[in-house]
Amino acid sequence: MGTAAAEPDVDVVVVGAGFSGLYALHELRSRGFTARVLEAGSDVGGTWYWNRYPGARCDVESVDYSYSFSPELDQEWDWSERYAAQPEILRYLRHVADRFDLRRDIEFGARVTSVRFDPGGTCWTVRATGRPPLVARFCVMATGCLSVPRAPDLPGLADFRGPTYHTGSWPESYVDFGGMRVGVVGTGSSAIQAIPELARRAGALTVFQRTPNFAVPARNGPLDPERLRRVKATYPQRRAANRASAGGMHREDNEQNTFDVDPRRRKAEYERRWHDGGFGLLGAFADVMADQRANDELAGFVRGKVRAAVRDEATARRLLPGGHPIGSKRLCLHTGYFETYDQDHVTLVDLAEHPLEAVTPAGVRAGGAEHELDALVLATGFDAMTGALNRIDVRGRDGTALADAWRDGPVTYLGLAVAGFPNLFLITGPGSPSVLTNMVCAIEQHVQWTARCLKHVRDGGFRGIEATEQAQRGWVAHVREVAEETLFPQADSWYVGANVPGKPRVFMPYVAGLDVYEQICEEVAATGYRGFTPV
Questions:
Q1: Quick one: 314 exposed, middle or buried, by C-beta within 10 A (0-12, 13-18, 19+)?
Q2: For residue range 284-311, what is the model confidence (pLDDT) as tens digits?
């Protein structure tokens, strides 16, 4: 004998209160939906709540790494730096939550553990710590692409006597490294931001490098008031241009191919963009991510800059990135990273030459040498794009677990929906541009499309909507085909899950660009949500 279907408590449950969750709540409210946000942390912020490590900041310019939905918000908020640091970004998100009265529909300290679909009631039952189950017609997963820190499997790590920190879950209170011997494992983007700051704080710093990465100067600094005034005066045009671009940001991409330009002018273009700082270097020529020779030339230019920045030739050689095309892993922005290694109290241990054997009670043993440490920092990245979703027990129409459906790699339709999981929407999920773009721009596009889709379901008198298997297969194939036309898949990057042992190697983001992607999404909506079926 069956049980009666539960009645929804709200129209929509949103999981996560970072950039995605806050905007989803605001947009859903504006369209007449009732919504509840469940957040594991004690405040808003998402990634910027948890990532408090020294030196943490955005790598998209502050004036673009911000919401565009409110012209009033654009005008009233003054960013202080070209690239905002974590505390300022968190203040901004707190301001947004307060200004738009979002907190009354957010529950903090509510870590979602399971999300199960009830086919009888065409609704989702969401279970979270510290509260009764919550039933909703729709579920929006705003869990973030980089929100699950990956702890490395280092032998002996539990035996280390000193404190151990992970950049992705840093303590809220200040960590005093004064006079301490600090070790850092990893040299990805978090480490490249943290290492110069840790060098200023620590008595001695030892960096254990697994793979050298390409990094370019951020040229960060205080934001000139006159420049900020000009940006604010033209914000509507700037926001529209960002949304209509491949990367969701102002980058001045060159439409010429590399070898259509003579060597002298190519060098001048690289130098100009290096001097300007930021991601603009990847836009120097149109074929950088498609032509190996073009990519090799740009990579060689950057290696030359590394050699020039580091006085010690042996150290500079160890810091030279190689083994993957520049840009095929997320390009790191830095402020004095390479120059940090010229300081007498900073030591680089190349694990390719001196493999890490074990963490010991007193430090790290690598290549037969013991490095005594008082504290250890793990800058080992995230289980990117799928980690946050897979650690929640998400069960679809037939009781299938999302983790099982994704056993061979994530499959989605548009990076927004998964066949077999009706009324479940992913914000910047695998199969969307997400991490290859300005994330805030990508988030706004996804949230707006999702909210319109929910309105379509409600206004059409449907109980729900679900991606079809056929549409999903077609989209997954398209994402793969587009990626294979580029140099991206050549790298063992977190874009393919290479940093997580046992994770299926699937290139997860959509590389054709936010502009192309949004056109496809709009065409899907305009044709009656092609690839979806009513429930």
A1: exposed
A2: 999 999 999 999 999 999 999 999 999 9
